Amino acid sequence: MLRSITSSARRLVPQNLILASFTTLALSASTQKETNSLLFTPQALSPNIDHSPSSIQLENPVNYYKSSQSQRKTSVSLLPFSGSSELYESLASCYRDSGSLNDAKEFHLQILKYGFDEDLFLCNTLIGFYVRAGDLGSARKLFAEMPERNSVSWACLISGYTQNGMSNEACRLFRHMVCAGILPNHYAFGSTLRACQDLESCGLEFGMQIHGLISKSRYVSDVVVCNVLISMYGNCLKSTHYARLVFDEIQIKTSISWNSIISVYSRRGDAASAFDLFSRMQREGVGFSLKPTEYTFGSLITAACSSCDLGLCLLEQMLPRITKSGFLLDLYVGSALVSGFARFGLVDYAGKIFEKMSQRNAVSMNGLMIGLVRQKCGEEAAEVFTEMRNLVDINPDSYVILLSAFAEFSVLEQGRRKGREIHGYVIRNGLSDSVVAIGNGLINMYAKCGAISDARSVFRFMPNKDSVSWNTMISGLDQNECFEDAVTTFCSMRRNGLIPSNFTLISTLSSCASLGCKPLGKQIHVEGVKLGLDLDVSVSNALLALYAAIGCLTECQKVFSLMPDHDQVSWNSMVGAFADLEGSVPEAVTYFLDMMRAGWRLNRITFINILAAVSSLSLSKLGCQIHALAIKYHVVADSAIENALLACYGKCGEMEQCEKIFSRMSERRDEISWNSMISGYIHNELLPNAMNLVWFMMQRGHRLDGFTFSTVLSACASIATLERGMEVHVCAIRACLESDVVVGSALVDMYSKCGRIDYASRFFSLMPIRNVYSWNSMISGYARHGHGDKALNLFTHMKLDDQLPDHITFVGVLSACSHVGLVNEGFKHFNSMSKVYNLVPRIEHYSCMVDLLGRAGELDKMESFINNMPMKPNVLIWRTVLGACCHANGQKTDLGRKAADMLFDFEPQNAVNYVLLANMYACGGKWEHVAEARMALRKAGVKKEAGSSWVTMKDGIHVFVAGDKSHPDKDLIYDKLKELNRKMRDAGYVPQTRYALYDLEQENKEELLSYHSEKLAVAFVLTRNSGLPIRIMKNLRVCGDCHDAFKYISKIVDRQIILRDSNRFHHFEDGKCSCGDYW
């Protein structure tokens, strides 16, 4: 297997690689950085080189040199004077373990004094001495002045360079050694390979060349060299393949060999392979006494921490073994265990191990603090720092972790205050300017504590900024909803010449998504493509979130298809993107199924997204299947999943399932749970159940939020239950939510839909804060009640108040114009949408314009307007056209017939379409066509909705249909109706029989009109003693005869009558209607 590696190395070098040709090897200057070109450029050995000192211990190659005494040309007998062997041995051993520079210089003087300056062994020893003392300059000078050098001389200096972080110099010196014809020993090979490892990818090619040389030397099976090769390949390559091949070729593996390969897999996060190797180590090392060391356990702990699913289990299994081996008290192993258990949330375990450690340092303290911070235990982390600050040597990382702990305080204000204290301390000690990481930590702390202005100040005054500084600032601005500033900071970063990282793009794309800025998002997308960052899965996920937020699902699909790898977030993003957009929900289900087929594990986000999609489709069977999957994946007890199930089943009409889930939730219920149940009841028209649940919430002491009140108020508005709506209003006052803008807007909407436009107007004027929904509710309310002038006047005030209108605003404005016949005004506002407010009219706005022209009798203009629409008319527009033709007294029946045919294609089972066609022909007296339309209705197998009216009294809701005689007070009702008919005729009322849409005699038509449901309802109310306004609701449009009759009745009984039909409100008072007979 080793041949497969060396053959790969040979592909990088000439095939006839021998020692002489190795000296000519060099990397092309065009492919290497300037600093790396030094590796292969011969330079004169100059003693005048500035080197950085280091305290890292150098392995002394003297023992190897002594074993090679046969290679020495100088024997002891050639010492400067006889009898000095004891002095020689004394010099060789006296300073052997010292690392003092003064001792090194003393040793050097002794060598010179006694004439040993040309002795190879002592000179090599002195080089090692200087290296240990960190004086690489003296070591290099001595090396250059040596009259004779051997492989140990070169190995000493190469090793010194490597251990002092001068990897380029180490590799350059190794090349000079080979050029000089010196065969490197295993120390030289090992040290140079370590240097290549430190250079990572830049040193890989040179390392493979050295491997090729090793394969031709006697060190091909040397365990020390092989161990270093394992580490080099493991560190420089993403794959573990080459490192594993080298390991497998080692004949006799030492504990270092096992530790090296386990470390490689550990760094790759391959816990399974790391622990498999550990098991092999124990099995194969029985006869060789291969016991795990602290380095073995340290690597295994790191591997366990990289496994999200089995990591904690592995740590718990390792703990007894570590304890038995006696390494629990070891600083290295103990610190790793503290960090590992803390990472998985077992802070108590980590704390106990931390307390048992006989020796602790900043690393172990930092590990415990990180775990506490991840568990949102900021106060406890700060307490650990306070207790340990005088017991260990605090490093900059400790301050960074401490600053992150303040952002996790339960009360952020306290965290911010503590953070400012640490800020002052690091300024006094000069740490804030000298250590960039601390400045970055301050920015992060202030941003997460909500003090974004303080974060800006720290960032602005930092003398040195790195990419982390910019990333932290951009991320902080994004988190504090300063989206424009985040994008601006990103642009500044680019102008300063810094290359953005994946973290930079993720935060900036998040801000673009929040701004809904598609052009800017695409520019950053292009920037990511240029830098190759679009291949990063997290960046691609951010792009998916951006395009999903702005509704560009096609771009989402393109990004997803081009991703080289997908993760769980990628799939969840696609499911969520399509689930949120109406009309694309089936695609969400498709992506969900594809995710399962691809073998990905479903998590809580997946279930929440797919349940939202199923809710939109109202597919109860699919919802049950998803529910079963949630049980299978053991996530059904999660409150977020349960809330999603409540919403899903509620929209699918399965309230029994909702009640079962809700009853099992018990203590897990939150505001969303209660609101989902209330919304479910309301969606399924079970308002009494919803109201009972609201009262139950209040009795249990649950605080109702704005969403709860707005939901219930919307339900009250939908069925015009004024009394219940007023009860909810009282509850909102008690909950101190009356001033909430959401609740206030819902109250305005409720009162206007329940007929109390005066209450709505009064409440709107008292609102301390108004948003676009508040204005829209009031404008629509005025339009619904026929107060077109007030609606348009309010729209003018809205613009003066600097509140930009939206699409819903213009629906209300155009409806107001339609209800009062302001055709020209309506077209002016319609055109202003695109020209002034940059709003593209939607289908509902075109529908309003069709209605406006139809009510005004401009049928020709209406037909022309439809033909010139940029989109195809929908059901609502064709039904509006057919309704307009109904009121045209037989005109344009051809247009009405066309509209009816379109409606039959769209909705063949909707009885309203057949009724409208029949009514159109009836208004024109075309009874044969009326019969044909009614026959078509019967053939379609559908039933028309019966006209009904209802009134709400103290004893309940009373419902009436035309000619109804089922009411207990029917005799009183019909007597009162006869009395009213007589008084109306005396006042000049004449029944308008053209609204009796049947081919009957005149008398029969009059009788039919006199028993319409709304007349029965008003007669019933008048049988009761009251002077309050009469409020009647009707499910269909009020007919012209009843409209005329109500004007007479309001004057006769001297009471206000408020009638809400399917289109609008009519306020009858003193013989007049608020609509001005234009409806």
UniProtKB/TrEMBL annotation:
Each PPR repeat, start to end: 119-149, 150-184, 254-288, 466-500, 567-602, 638-668, 670-704, 771-805
Instruction: Write the signal peptide boundaries.
Output: 1-28
The UniProt keyword set, sorted, is: Repeat, Signal
* Residue span, DYW domain: 988-1079
**A matching Pfam family:** Eplus_motif
Q: MF terms per GO, please?
A: RNA binding; zinc ion binding
The reply on keyword Phosphoprotein is: no
Superkingdom is: Eukaryota
| GO BP of this protein | RNA modification
Write out the similarity annotation. Belongs to the PPR family. PCMP-H subfamily.
Name recorded for this polypeptide: DYW domain-containing protein
